[in-house]
Amino acid sequence: MPKQLVIIPTYNEAENIEAIIQAISLLIQDFHVLVVDDFSPDGTYKIVQRLIDTSNQSFLHLIVRKQKSGLGTAYIEGFKWALANDYDFVFEMDADFSHAPKDLLPMFNMLHHKKADVVIGSRYVKGVNVVNWPMKRILMSWLASKYVKFITGLPINDSTAGFVGFRKEVLQKINLDKVKFVGYAFQIEMKFIAYQLGFNIVEFPVVFTDRSKGKSKMNTSIIWEAIFGVVKLKLKSWFGKIN
């Protein structure tokens, strides 16, 4: 039987974490969950540890890091853990229900039946499927993906998407120690490297719903990293140094 893991990076997600774990556990497919927490001041990691200790949840795992170190490094640590523990399919997912747990099932099936090496839960493959975002933020996100496509030639409509599934062969082929970006640029970098390595990337249409609890981690430094990081990625690819 294949093994599949959902990696959820967290920082101050105490209001959401137990509910998202429960929602994933109720799916008909057996998904394991790895929470990578950056020592959340609100005690997110304590909630996860309590669930592990009191509920005998063998599907649930936890890594607690010493400080807030960024989305990208959290996922890299999670990817390495997944490979070390021999998972066949690995998913990225937010804790705040902006990504619907039910969408894990069709995304898993695409990977399992080899219809994709990388599957993206895409907001923009069929119009604009975003709920509860202000128009300014929708426009910024949509234009960012257009910008990435123009600069890099990456044939993806939602390159900054954070709802992504990988076959383990993709993560094995990517040199994870050379993935350097930490914010949205990390999402672009992973997709661009996979594309450069010749893997089949498919977008699956999803509806993205903005969080109702907790606070967004978006800030200007993440935005600027993405803007300049895209140019850096393209320049590196010209010299054969993408990964």
Overview of this structure, please?
The chain is an alpha/beta fold. It has one domain: Spore Coat Polysaccharide Biosynthesis Protein SpsA, Chain A (Alpha-Beta Complex). It is 41% helix and 17% strand. The protein is built from eight helices and nine strands. The strands form two sheets. The chain has a seven-stranded mixed β-sheet, sandwiched between helices. A two-stranded parallel ribbon has the order 6-9. Helix 1 links the parallel strand 1 and strand 2. Helix 5 runs parallel beside helix 8 and helix 7 packs parallel to helix 8. The radius of gyration is 17 Å and the shape is globular. The two termini are 31 Å apart. The mean pLDDT is 90.
Keywords:
single chain; 243 residues; alpha/beta; seven-stranded mixed β-sheet; two-stranded parallel sheet
CATH-scheme architecture: Alpha-Beta Complex
Helical content, roughly?
Answer: 40-55%
User: Spatial order of the strands in the main sheet?
Assistant: 3-2-1-4-7-5-8
Number of extended strands: 9
CATH level-4 homologous superfamily? Spore Coat Polysaccharide Biosynthesis Protein SpsA, Chain A
Mean pLDDT comes to: 90
User: What does the overall shape look like?
Assistant: globular
Helix/strand structural class: alpha/beta
H/I helix tally = 8
The low-confidence runs, each spanning 5 or more residues with pLDDT under 50, are none
The main β sheet shows up as:
7 strands, mixed
Identify the CATH class: Alpha Beta
SSE arrangement, N to C: EHEHEHEHEEHEHHEEH
Radius of gyration: 17 Å
CATH domain topology: Spore Coat Polysaccharide Biosynthesis Protein SpsA, Chain A
> How much of the sequence is in beta strands?
15-25%
Distance between the termini: 31 Å
How many separate domains make up the residues?
1
